Amino acid sequence: MSQLSFSSFDSSLLVRDAQGRYLPASVEKILEAARQVIDQKMRRGTPFTSSMLVKEYLSTKLAGFEHEVFAVLFLDSQHRLIEYVEMFRGTIDSASVHPREVVKEALRFNAAAVIFSHNHPSGNPRRLTDALALVDVRTLDHIIVAGNATASFAERELL
User: Fold this and answer.
1) What is the arithmetic mean of pLDDT over 117-139?
2) What distance in Å separates the CA atoms of residue 83 and residue 30, rounded to the nearest whole number?
3) How much is the pLDDT for 104?
4) Phi-psi region for residue 76, left (φ > 0), alpha (ψ -120 to 50) or beta?
5) Fewer C-beta within 10 Å: the chain N or C terminus?
6) Interatomic CA distance for residues 159 and 146, integer angstroms
């Protein structure tokens, strides 16, 4: 059985442009389509009941970026999705994260809990966790996405 790579998909998948013509799909188009599918599958109110479900969701959302993205899942008290927000964008190896802005968004969404994620390891989530605790918002996890691999701070007992 042969393994498929993104480069083999480039020549076999087609997308329709604005004029209705079918053109070969780029890796970026394929990843964007995957993000749209996961958005349709995991709508507002979807319960995040396992770390595997969260990792699958975040892997799809953060795959393929050439820059670091710091995202937050805002959840209600039953750990159901309120909103996924890509809050900060950085360079290839870092992103500045501003706790004040995360707290403002948590309050705006009336979130009871959050899950942090980024696609490249940098920084320390402790400051964010402490800031959100002041307004009674629990940090459930911090997921790092690196290609097909994910790491959970909660699973590693780092939170």
Assistant:
1) 73
2) 23
3) 93
4) beta
5) N
6) 19
Residues 146, 56: contact at Cβ < 8 Å? no
Query: How many angstroms separate the Cα of 1 from the Cα of each of 8, 13, 48?
Result: 14, 20, 34
d(CA 80, CA 64): 26
pLDDT of residue 72: 92
> What residues contact 149, with CB distance under 8 A and at least 6 apart?
none
How far apart CA 131 and CA 37 sit, in angstroms, is 33
The amino acid that residue 119 corresponds to is N
CA distances from 78 to 51, 75, 140 (A): 15, 8, 12
pTM of the model: 0.68
Alpha helices in the chain (DSSP H): 6-10, 27-41, 51-62, 99-108, 126-133
CA-nearest of 52, 104, 50 to 74 is 104
The tokens 């004040």 sit on which residue? 100
Of 156, 42, 111, 86, nearest in space to 142 by CA: 156
* pLDDT tens per residue, range 126-135: 667 778 888 8
